[in-house]
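[09:14] KT: can someone run the structure on this one? pasting the chain below
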Amino acid sequence: MQTEMPGDNYGLREEIKAYWSARAETFDLSPGHEIFTHKEMAAWRRLILKHLGEADGRLALDLASGTGVISHLMDGLGFQVTGLDWAEPMLEKARLKAKARQRPIRFRMADVENTMEADDAYDVIITRHLVWTLVDPAAAFAEWLRVLKPGGRILIVDGDFVNVTRTERALKAVAKILERIGWLKPDPMHAPPGMMEAHHSIVSRVHFSNGARAEQVAELVAKAGFTEVQVDTDLRDIHKAQSRHWNALKALGRGTQHRFAVTAKKPIASEG
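[09:31] RB: done, structure tokens below
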């Protein structure tokens, strides 16, 4: 692992930490962050079981766990879960949820590129909407390979949140017109308008500043040493369940976005 020196990347990491700390208060209000319905919960469960298999009490690491939405989902499936996040306000909310549910999920602060976890510690790793924000994905994937047990599996759920399709752009334009004349109810803001400038600044400087694409992520995962790398772009059940919380035009636009899951395995020594 490279030693981080003061400079642009150091400043960017601190900005990312501050941004998501500020987002913690309203994070769970947004569809796509919190899981609001049994239908969406079931869709997430199917995706996880499809790629990670039955829990059977195995040890799971949830990276960039935020307010613990995916950690609690994994716990409900029967995994023994540890959630790591860099934003203390997110972790506070996650811990409160675990306390309310009386669940033994461990949450702690850590950098996903330097987790401080032991070698070969976890059976599975899961991340949701993390990879597109990484400063150094090669370092991150190498770190995740290190903490996985041989034969362990990783599930990355992410998307290209930078590039907007022509269809989505057109739908957004129509939606703005209809909102202005009162024919369409605006979707609730899940982040204060003043934070958008900070968001755009951060996105312009991360590794996937031009948008995270499934094939790019899969290639970097393979280069890190993972095997059996697969791409799954059939996340329709999840997105369909989430769409109930958006206006019709926004739901259609989100359906055109490039969203994906990448799964892979840490090789066993005899396979290498």
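[09:33] KT: thanks! The chain has one domain: 8-271.
[09:34] RB: yep, looked fine to me
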